[in-house]
């Protein structure tokens, strides 16, 4: 056992030393490429590309799922986990960037053309869609592991691509919204990428306002009823979506929507209730409400306000009468009980 432990310790120390040598070598390469005069042979470029490919295109080790409940405070303080290989991978990416930005000779232009082709909007959106739609990534992330490197980065790139979509939107893009983006609201680690996700969702609604009903119902279906910090995030996103929502779409989802808003207004968590109240500070949302029901504010419709107030007082009065009768009944029962107890003791 001691020999085995010693061998493992020695091997670990050797790996640390080798990794440090690799990092120092990459630093030297990056510095050299940054200061070189551009005299690189084709064989050197090919070797550099091979080295980059070996390091970047590799199997990612799955991160074990932690079997514990993450409360709101833990979620707010949690930080993204760092790939153990990142200290040297960062240098590999930087070296690739240096070569890409370098003025290459015509014989080496294949490198630039290959990398540039990845920046094609159609190719890139197709690639990201396939990655997020693929069951081993999107569905496994949402429903099983809740761990994946790069979701926020994917969504950040995707947001700029959606912004440039031509109208009308393709059917496959709408399917991508429903099957890949909306389910991303489910994981507990939503805070890590919610800003990017919210931007992508809002871009879809701004491009096609008819998608507002689909998005709002998707949010309601995934609503975090036991996580206050996520509820605040959902309310923030909901306001952004409603700002791009038109009356016809609002009418289709307003009943379940305001049932949820009403529950938020009655929340025991003050931040949730406060954020729900802030929806009425938005002029567009207030106008949507006014257009789809009788006016609810005393300043806008005093007669209707008085009618509602009278009904409210009537209901409260009946509740008070019922409570008074209940108390009187209990009091009579207590008196009867006391009388029976006295008679039995005598």
TrEMBL record:
InterPro entries noted in UniProt: ARM-like, ARM-type_fold, PP2A_B56
A Pfam family that the UniProt record links to this protein: B56
Superkingdom as given in the UniProt entry: Eukaryota
Protein name: Serine/threonine protein phosphatase 2A regulatory subunit
